[in-house]
Amino acid sequence: MMPFDPQLIPAYKSNILISACGPILSKEELLKCLSYTPDVPKNLENIPVEVRKHQMMSTRMLHIPSKSGIEVAQTIDLMLRQGYVNRNPKNVSTWRVLYNDSNC
């Protein structure tokens, strides 16, 4: 599945802050991006046991996101993009709010 281009959503068009967030990823794409599996050394049988013990510690870095972890990532992505909708630097109204000046 291809990532969804956020520029196809009218509220997201021409907003450089939303563009910087990148494409909207599917659950499968998020799973791939958030997963980490340490490399398994080649020729494991030729590596001394003492060294293998140290290499085994890299398994602590193993991360396979849970269903709720994927949902959290999707929620954060949604909240960020929606928060940027009314903060488009190209809109004069954004600067009015920032400088609290109704004469702009």
Tell how many strands the DSSP assignment holds. 0
Q: Kindly, what is the distance between the CA atoms of the first and last residues, rounded to a whole number of angstroms?
A: 45 Å
**β content, as a range?**
under 5%
Q: Please state the structural category.
A: mainly alpha
Give the helix proportion (percent range).
40-55%
Q: Give the ordered list of helices and strands.
A: HHHHH
Would you mind describing this structure in some detail?
Helix 2 crosses helix 4. The longest helix is centred in the last third of the chain and has 19 residues, at about 65-85. The chain has helices spanning about 15-20, 25-35, 50-55, 65-85, 90-100. The model has no long low-confidence stretch (mean pLDDT about 90). The N and C termini lie far apart (about 45 Å). It has five helices and no strands. The protein is elongated. Helix content is about 45%, strand content about 0%. The relative contact order is 0.17. It has one domain. The chain has about 100 residues and is mainly α.
Summarize the structure.
This protein has helices at 16-19, 27-34, 49-56, 67-85, 92-99. By secondary structure, the chain is an all-alpha fold. The protein has one domain (27-99).
